[in-house]
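Q: Can I see a sequence and its folded structure?
A: Here is a first one.
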Amino acid sequence: MLTADGDDVAHQMPSSHLPTTATSLPRPLPPLVLTTTHDNGHVMTMEIGG
């Protein structure tokens, strides 16, 4: 999950968290739905309730 753009450094988030969510995606995501693309090409969709 290393990015040459340094987005992870700018956000100061641990590697265990989602590095760039809405920033790396072409369109904004719903507040309760987060989609992240791993370096292996798999896409994980997480629904956060609360």
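Q: Show me another, different protein.
A: A second, unrelated one:
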Amino acid sequence: MTESSRERVAEMKKSADRYEGRGDRLQRSDPERAQYCYSWASRLNSYLAGKESTDTTYRMKQKRRIDEKAERVRRRQELFGGEKR
């Protein structure tokens, strides 16, 4: 996630926190708009949840790659006494 999108998400969360609890009033006064707001918030939450899980998966794969490379380097140093082929 880029810095600007993080800021945008933080801003949206702040805005959502400010309006939390007002949903019931909005539901009574304008049900159609309330439905739109709820569906939009639901999409945002699912996007954020998916984004977090893919970020975590990516970090795990990256760590595994780094660990595997470190293991190959260590083995090569053991076999060849530190000299490169």
